[in-house]
Amino acid sequence: MELDSRPVVEVSEANIYQEDHKVLSDINFRIEKGEFVFLVGRTGSGKSSLLKCLYADLPIASGAIDVAGYNLKKIKNKDIPFLRRKIGIIFQDFQLFPDRTVTENLTFVMRATGWKDRTKIKSRLAEVLMRVGLGAAADKMPHQLSGGEQQRVVIARALINEPVILFADEPTGNLDPEVSNGIFSLFKEINRSGTAILMATHNHKFIEDHPERILKCEEGKLLDSAEVEFNLSSHY
Ligand SMILES: Nc1ncnc2c1ncn2[C@@H]1O[C@H](COP(=O)(O)OP(=O)(O)OP(=O)(O)O)[C@@H](O)[C@H]1O
């Protein structure tokens, strides 16, 4: 029970570096269970670097970051796969195996994350594909799917292990506006059923239409709309 009430993400006094370059300094924020949070900022302001820290792809120089109950400052390499089972990661480039079917793409991740029982694999597979509106795509190759459909497969893959949070880095960056809206709606629907979402985006329309909390990377700092008012009309 205690774990349930803890924030999904808790960042205290963290500094984030890319090599010798300090990208973000002294950042502090929490994301609670089931929250939806946008991450904005100009190109190069540090959004991807922050997300990488949160999914343990970039070490934290100083400060503390807890994600899904894992202390990322102390996490051992062998524990990173267990952290990754509790979170979902979605990028703008779809990163599916081009030479494997949708089913094979998903079962690859299932087997890598400990799924063994064939019946359970089959039913979970059907469940996540239905969830993203791709019930009929199980046997398709990625190239037989549109960009939006491929991104739905990626989202299905991220949902397999019922993550507590999805980290999405420009998930609609390669999609046209109408398809982007469909993908965004899917994220909102996933969020409504309890999964927290942190989404980096340059899409002004999403933010205008959905007044959610916003974290903004600006000049090496992270601003939080829950704490301070800031100008969103400047470029982001
Ligand atoms: N692998 C890397 N090695 C060295 N520096 C990097 C690396 N990746 C990013 N950087 C630098 O870190 C800074 C932050 O980059 P980051 O990719 O986090 O920005 P971003 O806000 O995600 O940008 P975009 O909106 O273009 O995706 C930039 O100055 C960038 O050049």
From TrEMBL:
Protein keywords: ATP-binding, Nucleotide-binding
Domain ABC transporter: 9-236
Keyword match Cytoplasm: no
Highest taxon of source: Bacteria
N-terminal signal peptide: none
PROSITE patterns recorded: ABC_TRANSPORTER_1 (PS00211), ABC_TRANSPORTER_2 (PS50893)
An MF annotation (GO) of this entry: ATP binding
PANTHER family: CELL DIVISION ATP-BINDING PROTEIN FTSE, IMPORT ATP-BINDING PROTEIN
Protein name per UniProt: ATP-binding cassette domain-containing protein
Species this protein is from: Reichenbachiella ulvae
